[in-house]
């Protein structure tokens, strides 16, 4: 650790502290609730995987123009698509959850967008086709929420490929505000016994009860939560494997680790944006858009316990933050274009 920390900037050091604090608090919350802490809990694994993803993204950034990076993105997209179409039943491979597959595909779009910046024309074409393949994965998984968050990400990539930004503050502010507003909406909806008709048509009605149960559990233990794993015991719907989670990162964390856990989650989310902000502005915009896409999607679904999603999101942050403006240099006649 002593050898690693000097190479980290302030945002990354804060991220390490928050990762350790999140893990420590999950252990404390378990003990306070009379539960045995688990090293395999998502509260332990997800922060570790995220940190590993950021480190891997930093490494990839140094090899961004390598043909192996493009090939890896093509392979991952192909595996995601074949996993879905070759699976019978609802438990779609490779994650066994359709929305999780789609969330991985959204992050692949973000990684492909980062690889496009500064790439030559041939690689840009391949990467746009890869992004199109990731959209096909989302469609194959029939994830409406993933479509909703993928559209702004694709728009950000197209904008940065066509006209690279010089400023990054607007993207960071937009990401932070959109996630804050969405979190407020989730809390309001969770507090209502019934939803307006337009909301009920757009969201699975089962989420109404799941979110309501999670908020009630949180209210009973506002500071410390009911302990990791307590939602499964509290909600009657959680007896079913498909509804074992609250289907909201905020409500899941809040109900099981209280306001302390929710604040740590919020701080870690903002620190992710700060890590992306270390790089050149176009990379920051794409990295922040990919991170915001996961943040918004996870507020209405259970995604953060899936390691492939978290590591891909961490890679996008690390790659964006480690990229520098000189990587945008391209030969004359090879100005980045959408495809």
From TrEMBL:
One matching Pfam family: Wzy_C
Membrane topology note: Multi-pass membrane protein
Main localization category: membrane
Entry keyword tRNA-binding: no
Ranges for domain O-antigen ligase-related: 134-265
Localization in the cell: Membrane
InterPro entries in the cross-refs: O-antigen_ligase-rel_domated, WaaL-like
UniProt keywords, alphabetically: Membrane, Transmembrane, Transmembrane helix
Segments crossing the lipid bilayer: 12-32, 44-61, 68-86, 98-118, 125-140, 146-162, 169-190, 258-276
Protein name: O-antigen ligase-related domain-containing protein
